[in-house]
Design goal:
480 residues; alpha+beta; 12 strands; flat
Amino acid sequence: MGLPAPRYFLSGGWPTALTARALSPPPRGPRRWAAVAAMKKFFQEIKADIKFKSAGPGQKLKDSAGEKTSKEKSSQLALRPPRQGPTDEAQMAAAAALARLEQKQPRARGPTSQDSIRNQVRKELQAEATSSNSQGTPGTNSVPEPKEEISPHLAVPGVYFICPLTGVTLRRDQRDAHIKEAILSHFSTDPVAASIMKIHTFNRDRDRVKLGVDTIAKYLDNIHLHPEEEKYQKIKLQNKVFQERINCLEGSHEFFEAIGFEKVTLPVPDQEGSEEFYVLGEAARAHPESLEQRKQQLLDAEPVRAMLDRQCRVFRPSALASHFELPADFFSLTAEEVKREQRLRTEAVERLSSLRTKAMREKEEQREMRKYTYALLRVRLPDGCLLQGTFYARERLSALFGFVRESLQNDWLPFELRASGGQRLAEDETLALNECGLVPSALLTFSWDASVVEDMRAAGTEPATSVLRPELLAAIQPLS
């Protein structure tokens, strides 16, 4: 039983005279391919006719495509209804929300967008000045650095340090260069102390410094214990131990020369040529006890580091006591801190895939607080005055209590400090400021110890409301 012949229809109607050929079964042989080609041509004509009818109304040849587009846009704009403004209820709701946002004062914030724009403008002006100088006066490309604008509303102008050698107050970016210059200038007065400071300060690798210092101490011990043996009076510079442990340290050669060694070229026994040695001079041999003192001085030395300037300030009572606007120094990160932050973020992504206990979450919160380097703390005193100081974020609570005690008239009386949440801080605890949630800024409350208040009241007196030293009260200022 054969299959019925296929029939071909147009969608939406019966076959017409135009499609009579397409409705008949295709012939066999060579005539079949001609019929297939005719069918393809027929469907192409149908598709072209449908596309032409769906293209929309026509246009004159003299009209451009741009004029047509503009006419269509203008007609659409004319048909679009005008935009209505917000209702009175919506405006009242927006005003209430804005008032709530203004009442919320941020605890601490970094540089604002205006500061970023100002810094960008300064960079562009400096770049223009550099290009103009290079074009106008060839050979001179020095541009005076613009003065940094400090916002009058900042709680503190920045983070500053004090050089222990000169007592000069320095910015963060000035301290290392200034300390190195001070150490080098100290060679003219005390070369031994200067060389020891250079060894401990100029070399950052503390393990390598300890290894080199211990090796130098061993050399000096051999001289002190065996003063008559000639072999301990000289040190071969090309010795492997000397090269690996001492020669790589900045300041080591200056130390040997400062304590009495002289660099001498001596012939090598049973070999051709000569080598350099450090040979102990006659003056140093006559006083071997001085070498023992220099050795102990070298072992006990510490790196010379700039001290953080507390910038102690006293403010009058103010409703803005808990408002802190901090400079960028409190938020900038060093290269090592950036690497540590990147590692912590990677670990945080891995922890998101697993469940965390309460202890794990608290540990992560403490780790988040460790990313700050400095902390600005204010202490509200019984009379409402505010005592402010700058600290390292990793300093212990004892440093905070010591700072407050140095500002009191009666520094021998015990007192208490409480955080904003009512947390009582104990002086004897070994916790750091960042572990107590006091970074990057915090407001604390001062109060005398309860037993002291009871004793004073039992004696018929009340604790004084003004507790600061007179010289601090003389420099009191309003909090803006």
